[in-house]
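Sharing in case it's useful to others searching the archive later.

Someone asked me privately for the predicted structure of Helicase ATP-binding domain-containing protein, so I'm posting the question and my answer publicly. Question first, with the sequence:
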Amino acid sequence: MICNNERVRQPACSTGARISAGEAMNDGKPLQADWENFTREELLAELSRLQAEIARLTAVLPATLQAQAKPVRLARNAPSPAVRNTGARVLSPEQKVQLFRRLFRGRTDVYPLRWESRNSGKSGYAPACANEWRAGICEKPRIRCADCGHRVLLTLDDQVVYTHLAGDRTVGLYPLMPDGTCYLLAVDFDEEGWREDAQAFRQSCLEMSVPVSLEISRSGNGAHAWIFFSSAVAARDARRMGSAIISHTCTRTRQLELTSYDRLFPNQDVLSKGGFGNLIALPLQKQPREHGWSVFVDDGFQPYADQWSYLASVQTMDSRDIEGVIFRATGGAHPLDVAFIAEEDQAEPWKPPPAQPKRLAGTMPASLTLTLANQLYLEKAPLAQALLNRLIRLAAFQNPEFYRAQARGFSVWDKPRIIGRAENCPRHIALPRGCLDNVMTLLRDNDIACDIRDERCTGDPLPVPFAGTLRDDQQAAVTDLLRHDTGILHAPTAFGKTVTAAAMIAQRGVNTLVLVHRRELLDQWRERLQSFLALDVREIGTIGGGKSKATGRIDVAMLQSVAPDGARGELLRRYGQVIVDECHHVSADSFEAVLKAVHARYVLGLTATPVRRDSQQPVMFMLCGPIRHAAKSPASAPQVLEVFPQRLTSAVDVAADAPIQAVFAQLAQDTPRTQMIATAVREQYGQGRNVLDGPSRKPAASAAGHSAVAVRAARTARQKSARHPVGCP
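And my answer, the predicted structure tokens:
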């Protein structure tokens, strides 16, 4: 018989500490402490601890004896008409525990235990620890459990499972094993409409011949779909299958939220360093079971009359069937089924993969009305489920932070696997303007006629001549950009993106707003536009940098100074063209909100770096459009960086173990070296070349001996913009 007695464990001690007084248990054998080495205060403290332990064990003794005398009682709910339990074999408590553990397999070296605060009512789970709340050992909440040197993790055994089923505690499971495998896959549904979502997922599993079990969660406001494997499978394969079934469900039956991909258990392919992975509450805990929750249900969401007979009939899935299910669910496409897929071997990561022509299953509408405004709007009522799902996924991409963290063994908690930019309006679905080409391709591939209503702002006429001269490569860029209302110019530094943009303003002839993200760019753009468009500087408005004077004709504004609401938000809706300099910055949330409020017909992005360090460039494409022209470096730009090493004969006396700053100081004080640099600078300057010298020490700059301009950092904006002769403070 399983008993509820808890073994008294030896308290974990820090290095050099003595064991506690009295008798501790080590593998069932008592260890007698050395009483003579303890002070009176230590003995009194140990006595208090033992008295508290005796009181605790005395309190749980009656419940323990009762649990030993009686088998586990399961709440009997109204039997489902679809269930037949006649002749079901009665299982003993031990057999029930073994059946339970055979299906719900995960880590056994640690398990999460539910806690609930009596004061705040908050609840959660934490790894079960033998030293939790032990006086003199546990220092919660001052020290986090993960940082505690006294943490002794408890193992998941038959007794723990029994106490969970009996209602004495609520136990969870860490399904991801240390070797990256798992024995089950679960999907959590807890959003509005969770019943329909869970039922749709179950239907997809049945279509794919995947055995699945539905459980009402312990809150009663959600459901878990469980898939059990006959042996350990790679968590990556199990999760790919789960994602494929979700994608199949969205295509055929019901539009699940993209966050459904984040509600898989396990939620990562490998364990993060020092982590246990995500946890899931084990079902059939007595207390919620008495309310009809935390129990398994049929397709009508009626609890099975005999939960144990049902569990005994559950079929497991063979690992060899996983790849076949993935293929049947996706047709060979990526399981996530989104527009931007991050592939490791993608040669040009700034480009989305070409859209594959794909006819959707089901009856499609003959025609649709597409409204162009600040976004693309399609009425939801006439959209078939497969079409609605595909449209939503045109505005979705894999979150690189999730995969980067997973690859490095970091936690992926609170990192969504998919980022979606589609918006669900009451009657319409809204997609970013950059999705227009893919939307039109999708409709054309499915023989759907499209009636386009253009509600964008065409702006006010702006007849300005272009006063500059374009190179051939710049003219080619203008020609390509003029073919499209939206898009990005990808050109390297020194290409002349500003002069190209000025030519676009003159060609399109509508009032224009230029958005920048730095004060220096604000002033540069005003100077360049004044020059290339032959305008008076007073004709170019400024918003930001302490100024707020818009002309409504040609204005330059800082992104940080243009809020999408209020008076300036209304201003965003009046321009016929918006140009975004260094548009790779628009992926930031605040900048994205500004671009989504723009109603201009023409949106042009300029960038030299279409690939962001955080790999969020799909947001840039959605807001500004795809790359319409990718320019190469101008022929006049140097193609090769030449390095000319110079050898000095003077010795520098620096200790072998000297810090690097000491080495820099010695080099700065080396007069022959400094004179050699200054001579080289003078020679190049004498040949008519612009010279940029980056000395980190003032003495080096002071030796130049010529009039020069120095801009020093670590000062205010006004100080940095001031020009000082070299050598001046």
